[in-house]
Amino acid sequence: MKNLILKNVTIVIPTYYSKNTINTTLNSAYKYFDKIIIVDASPNNISANISHKYKVKVLRSIKGRGTQLLLGANKVSTNWIFFLHSDTILNKNNIRDIKEFISNESNYYKAAAFKIKFNKNNIYSYLLMLITNIRSKYLKLPYGDQGLLISRNFYKKIGGYENIPIMEDVDIINKIGFKNIQILNSHIITDAIRYENQGWIIRPFINLYCLCLYFFGFDIHKINKIYLRNKNGKS
Description:
This protein is of the alpha/beta class. It has ten helices and eight strands. The protein starts with 8 loop residues before the first strand and ends with a helix.
């Protein structure tokens, strides 16, 4: 029987060509949560095939994680929203931390994210995990692959996700505010395939470069072009 506390949480998952990871993500979440919304931008609509298996709600969207998260959040009716990437795996410790966070009334106008681990164990994954968790702890700047737990009222109060092609996770963290972000004790697990394909050093460097451009006020669409050009290995 699913926990009554978790019945007040809706998971929102944006997907785009996620057929290799979404089943693992849903397997880890579906046994705990009744309400899951998938916002799919894949041309072949891969998520429609799994909606019957997991009885999740599937919305169609144009590509863009900010756009997809915004659309999904607008369909949530529960008091809490948990934004989750489609290549992320939940565990029992994550569920424990979620229950504790939403059970505390003082967190109603705060938000939470997890520490991160990768599903590959090597020196590069360890160093990146260490750097990411230090950044999250001291700068209170978690990225989207660390999940985001927030009450629907607080989400609406701060204006929610922006309809932007990149940096949607950084933008909403800025809206939430340094003092209102809590990094939970447990580690969420994310797929390392992006770093294996693009490079454990190159991809974090590109992410950091784009982040710096964002904070220096560069046009968000130009930043997205730089990100996509480097991601696709084009000059």
